[in-house]
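User: Design a sequence. Structure:
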C-alpha cells in the first residue's frame, strides 16, 4: 500500500516516474529497484529545484526600537538572485505581555509569535541563550538550501560522521558506508533527526566542516540572532546555543524554504539504501498524528538541552511560530506545545 506521505512528497518533487505508477505499491517499487541496485526514492537536482524555487533570502534591516528586531524577507529566484519585482515582507518582533490567562508550561523557555506581524503572543525566558540540541539542524538545512548545491550528488557516510570532538554520543540506524544523495541526507536530518546525515552535509560542503560552521554563524548574524552560536551541524554539542527569541526568527525564515517545509513535516518515509530499507517516522508526534497544520517542525534532545521543539503552524487563520526549549520529557514537550497552540487559537487576530 502506497503511503500517502510518500505519494505527496514525490508529487511535490515532480518525479514523473512515480506519478505514472500510482497503481504500483511502495513495496513493489522497493523490490524492483533493490533488484537493480537503485534507490526507490531518488532525488535529482531538478526535483529539489522545484521546491528550492520557492526559497527566500533574509537579511537584517536597519536597527529597530529597543525590544524589537526587524527582519526583512524577500522572494528569491531559482538562481539565487533576488527578484526586484517581488514584494518584501518585514516582520518586527515585538515583545508584549497583554494577553490574560496565559498557560503555564514545563519548558525552561518558550515563545509563541505571530508569524506575519512579529507580535509575541507568549514568552517565557525567551531572551535566555540555552542549548538547542537538534534544533541546530534547521540552520543546517537553511545553509544547505542557500548554497544551491547539487542535490543528486552521492554522499557516503564515513566513520567521522558518527562522532565529533566535544559532542555527545547518540544512536543511529545509519552505518558508515551507507550512501545516499544530498536531498536524502537532508530529509534524514530534518525528518528523522539523523546526526550522521547532518554531519555528512557539513563535511561535503565546499570548504568542509569549518566553512559550513562559519556559514551557519554568519547566517545567524545576518538574521539578527544575536544570542546564537553554533559549534557543529548536528546539535550534539552543548555549545550550540540560542534563545527562544532567536529561534523564532530562524523558524520564520525557514518557513520560506519550500524544501525545508516539505522535508521537516514528512510524517514517515521509507529510505532505500540499496541493500536495506529504513522505515522512518518523523520525530514530532504532532506531525505524525496530523491534528495540526504544521508547516515547519524540528525536535531536539541532549541532556543539557532537555526536550525541545520548534514549529511554524497556522492558528486561528494566522501563521504562528512556537518554540519550546528544555522540557523535562517528550510527553511534557508535546503537552506544552498542545496547550500553547490551543490557547493561541482562541486569541483574536489583529488585522
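Assistant: Done.
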Amino acid at each position: 500500500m502506497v503511503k500517502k506521505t510518500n505519494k505527496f512528497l514525490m508529487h511535490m518533487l515532480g518525479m514523473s516516474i512515480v506519478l505514472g505508477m500510482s497503481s504500483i505499491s511502495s513495496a513493489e517499487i522497493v523490490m524492483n529497484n533493490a533488484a537493480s541496485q537503485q534507490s526507490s526514492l531518488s532525488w535529482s537536482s531538478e526535483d529539489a529545484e522545484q521546491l528550492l524555487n520557492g526559497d527566500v533570502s533574509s537579511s537584517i534591516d536597519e536597527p529597530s526600537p529597543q525590544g524589537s528586531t526587524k527582519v526583512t524577507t524577500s522572494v528569491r529566484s531559482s538562481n539565487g538572485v533576488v527578484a526586484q519585482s517581488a514584494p518584501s515582507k518585514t516582520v518586527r518582533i515585538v515583545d508584549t505581555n497583554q494577553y490574560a490567562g496565559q498557560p503555564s508550561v514545563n519548558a525552561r523557555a518558550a515563545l509563541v509569535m505571530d508569524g506575519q506581524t512579529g507580535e509575541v503572543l507568549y514568552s517565557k525566558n525567551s531572551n535566555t541563550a540555552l542549548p538547542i540540541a537538534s534544533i541546530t539542524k534547521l540552520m543546517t538545512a537553511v545553509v544547505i538550501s542557500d548554497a544551491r548545491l547539487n542535490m543528486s550528488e552521492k554522499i557516503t557516510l564515513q566513520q567521522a560522521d558518527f562522532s565529533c570532538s566535544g559532542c555527545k554520543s547518540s544512536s543511529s540506524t545509519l552505518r558508515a558506508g551507507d550512501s545516499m544523495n544530498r536531498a536524502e541526507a537532508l530529509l534524514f536530518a530534518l525528518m528523522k533527526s539523523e546526526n550522521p546525515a547532518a554531519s555528512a552535509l557539513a563535511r561535503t560542503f565546499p570548504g568542509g566542516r569549518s566553512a559550513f560552521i562559519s556559514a551557519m554563524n554568519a547566517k545567524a548574524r545576518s538574521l539578527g540572532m544575536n544570542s546564537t552560536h553554533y559549534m557543529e551541524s548536528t546539535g550534539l554539542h552543548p555549545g550550540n546555543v540560542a534563545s527562544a527569541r532567536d529561534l523564532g526568527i530562524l523558524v520564520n525564515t525557514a518557513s520560506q524554504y519550500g524544501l525545508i517545509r516539505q522535508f521537516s513535516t514528512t510524517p514517515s518515509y521509507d529510505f532505500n539504501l540499496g541493500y536495506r530499507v529504513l522505515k522512518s517516522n518523523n520525530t514530532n508526534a504532532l506531525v505524525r498524528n496530523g491534528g495540526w497544520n504544521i508547516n515547519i517542525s524540528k525536535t531536539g534532545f541532549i541532556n543539557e538541552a532537555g526536550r525541545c521543539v520548534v514549529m511554524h503552524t497556522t492558528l486561528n487563520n494566522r501563521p504562528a511560530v512556537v518554540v519550546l526549549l528544555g522540557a523535562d520529557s517528550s510527553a511534557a514537550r508535546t503537552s506544552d506545545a498542545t496547550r500553547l497552540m490551543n490557547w493561541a487559537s482562541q486569541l483574536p487576530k489583529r488585522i
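Residues 94-346 form a domain with the Beta-lactamase fold (CATH 3.40.710.10). The two ends are 45 Å apart (CA to CA).
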